[in-house]
Amino acid sequence: MFGRNLTAVLSLFPVLLLGASVRAADDAPVSLVLAEQGTLPIILTVPHGGRQRIPGVEERDVRAKAGGRSKIWGGYVKSVDADTDILARRIAAEITRITGKSPYLVMAKFSRKYIDANRPPEMAFDDPAARPYYDYYHSSVRRFIDEIRGKYQAGLLIDVHGQSMNPAVVMRGTRNGGSVAQLLKRAGFPAVTGPDGIFGQLEANGFKVFPGNDVPTRGTFENAGLNGGYTVAIYGSDKADGIDSVQMEFGSKYRQHSALDQSGENAGRAIAHFYRAYLREARR
Fold it and tell me: What is the CATH number of the domain that holds 120?
């Protein structure tokens, strides 16, 4: 009897192994994308702070794509926005400390060498095996946006990046106002650059911002810097299913290890102030 039972168990072993491998494959995107539920109408997205390799996925070959589409969406880039993952965590913690509520957070743990989550899929990866990770990142963003749109009168997505072109500034990206169309309709550009506005508050909390908050907001006023990429373009409030979205490009000065805690606290304080001024009592 024992022999027959053992044979039956052993015959199931390949099936059990197959089931385990399928579950592992299904869980793989979840393990490399952090998607945290929030209790505020604020989403922090971090596409380029990841550090981990993706098992079984080939790195992107950006050298072969130097021409053609290289200028679209900022081109083909593999470099990481160093420590933006840590910075976003610090920002979220400070917002929670001040408000008692937490922002949503979607953060790529995978390295940009494998996937650029701030590009359309045809530019984001080379290896088709990367697609589930890319899709899970963006489906998490979409799910949180839909939830905020269903529960709140207004919301804000903040796409957290790092740049070294001008180390001592935070570059503003609203696609020249397009990605914050509903905020501008509701409250005007003071909600962006005024004393209680999101970038006005960044300046009040010690950051130098570019373009300056005193620069007239006409035409292509942001185009001299990084004026907003794929994420704010597809999820911004100029889209029927979007929310107000801004890109924050933190200069390397603010991402030095010795500065990360202070930068996170200052940015979190600015965002919490903006929330109280323009989101908490918002009316559509």
Answer: 3.40.630.40
3-state SS of 153-182? CCCEEEEEEEECCCCCCEEEECCCCHHHHH
Question: What's the domain range around 216?
Answer: 27-279
Specify if 254 maps to a domain: yes
> Is 16 domain-assigned?
no
> Which segments within the chain are labelled E, that is strand?
33-36, 42-46, 104-108, 156-163, 170-173, 209-210, 244-251
The reply to whether 6 falls in a domain is no
Q: Which residues of the chain have pLDDT under 70?
A: 1-26, 66-70, 282-284
Q: How far apart are CA 135 and CA 1, in angstroms?
A: 50
**Cα–Cα distance between 274 and 39 in angstroms, integer?**
16
Q: Give domain status of residue 52, yes or no.
A: yes
Q: Which residue has the tokens 């390949």?
A: 14
How many Å is the Cα radius of gyration of the chain?
A: 21
Query: Could you give the number of structural domains in the chain?
Result: 1
Burial call 93-130: b when 16+ CB within 10 Å, e when fewer: bbbbebbeebbbbbbbbbbbbbbbbbbeeebbbbeebb
> Is residue 54 within 8 Å of residue 110, measured between CB atoms?
yes
Q: Is the pTM of this model over 0.85?
A: yes
Tens digits of residue pLDDT in 58-113: 999 988 776 545 678 989 999 999 999 999 999 999 999 999 999 999 999 999 99
Give the separation between CA 95 and CA 273, rounded to whole angstroms: 9
Cβ 206 vs Cβ 261: under 8 Å: no
pLDDT of 69 reads 56
211 preceded by cis ω (within 30°)?
Answer: yes
